[in-house]
From TrEMBL:
SUPFAM superfamilies: UDP-Glycosyltransferase/glycogen phosphorylase. Coiled coil: none annotated. Signal peptide: none annotated. This is Glycosyltransferase family 4 protein. CDD domains: GT4_PimA-like (cd03801). It comes from Rosenbergiella australiborealis. InterPro entries: Glyco_trans_1. The lineage of its organism: Bacteria, Pseudomonadati, Pseudomonadota, Gammaproteobacteria, Enterobacterales.
Length: 381
């Protein structure tokens, strides 16, 4: 079959993008032809993918998104496919992969009445309704039960249209027990001493991921503990504001910013603690990658994948509403008690030995194939 995927932008280091690639490759390995609609593709093309660049048009995100969906709809009229799988909300999707939170729920929590009168609000809400309303037939792949609860609360979407996926990380990269085998070797290659605490944060969009919160927690550490810490922030974003903040807090010599890297599994094996105090995070694939790497985590409760960490007892989940003092104390306690870091790491390894951390791509491919066959049968009839 000819299976089409749509996402606004592809770059190698985003969680949404990595999920898309693994799912599309799983479908391709089953013999299907893969078409990708995107406005921007960074990095190497996937072998065999037919990548169609959608022209950008509009001065704002919501107008560009509207043009994106209309262009694809027009293109498909003359270039039909068997199924369209979307990674951003838009009309015309057969399947939507919910890599984002419920926009209506977020707006209701964080915005006032005047925001609901803006063109941006109306445009985003219209796109979300096209997927989740009771008049839609779009099947929905969700990563957490909370996503389904939020969407159902606002749109009364039938539960039969939701499909909850298990976590799904790259089995070839995040190998079980890699931490035990390669940790010392990787730290030596990175120039990290055995008595240094290597703290890591991974994710694009530094503001949403809470990088300032992490910097505040490190700055709050007392000497000499602070001098034993180095903090790497890895992600596709402009670090200028955050580097300046680190300088203001007197920790610039402890903090290092890196654009997206290919060696995240190795960095996780070498690190002592992952910080992820996100303001908003529908799921957070990086949390599952840390879990599979036996890397302890301190994250916020808003992260959709936080319950996995709680179940594994492999770190600390900061409850909402967020308290910077609470987060600071959690980081301090973890570093003051290295034996706790070891216990969390061992707990993560036990959890992954007993649970499937890799099944998402194949589960999604099963649902996509089933839906494509249904659409083909309905079209024939």
């Amino acid at each position: 079959m000819k299976i089409a995927f749509s996402l606004h932008k592809y770059f190698p280091y985003g969680g949404q993008q990595r999920d898309f690639r693994r799912i599309a490759v799983a479908c391709q390995q089953r013999g299907h032809h893969i078409v990708v609609y995107t406005s921007e593709w960074q990095g190497e093309k996937c072998p065999g993918f037919e990548v169609i660049i959608v022209p950008k048009k509009g001065i704002s995100n919501h107008t560009r998104n509207h043009h994106f969906s209309r262009w694809i709809a027009a293109y498909r009229l003359n270039n039909p496919d068997d199924l369209l799988v979307g990674f951003n909300k838009m009309p015309g999707l057969d399947i939507y992969f919910a890599a984002d939170v419920c926009f209506a729920a977020k707006a209701a929590r964080e915005k006032g009445y005047l925001y609901t009168l803006t063109p941006r609000y109306r445009s985003y809400l219209q796109a979300e309704k096209a997927v989740f309303s009771t008049h839609s037939n779009t099947e929905i792949l969700v990563l957490t039960p909370q996503q389904q609860a939020d969407f159902s609360a606002f749109y009364h979407t039938p539960s039969t249209r939701f499909h909850l996926l298990s976590p799904g990380i790259d089995r070839q990269q995040f190998l079980p027990h890699q931490r035990n085998v390669y940790r010392d070797e990787i730290r030596h290659a990175l120039g990290i001493n055995t008595d240094t605490f290597f703290l890591l944060q991974v994710g694009s969009d530094f503001r949403r991921k809470g990088v300032l919160r992490s910097l505040e927690a490190i700055a709050a550490l007392a000497s000499p503990l602070k001098e034993k810490v180095i903090f790497w922030v890895v992600g596709d974003d402009n670090p200028a504001v955050y580097r300046k903040y680190a300088e203001k807090k007197g920790i610039a010599d402890r903090v290092f910013f890196h654009q997206g890297r290919e060696d995240i599994p190795q960095l996780m094996a070498a690190a002592d603690l992952l910080l992820h105090p996100a303001h908003q995070e529908a799921a957070g694939i990086v949390l599952i990658e840390a879990l599979a790497s036996s890397l302890p985590v301190i994250c916020t409760e808003v992260c959709g994948n936080a319950p996995y960490l709680s179940d594994a007892e492999s770190g600390v989940v900061i409850s909402e509403p967020f308290s910077q003092d609470h987060f600071n104390q959690a980081v301090l306690n973890a570093l003051k008690h290295p034996e706790q870091l070891l216990l969390w790491s061992q707990a993560a390894q036990r959890y992954c030995d007993q649970h499937d951390m890799y099944g998402l791509p194949e589960q999604a491919a099963d649902i996509i194939e089933k839906r494509a066959k249904y659409v083909a049968t309905r079209t024939t009839l």
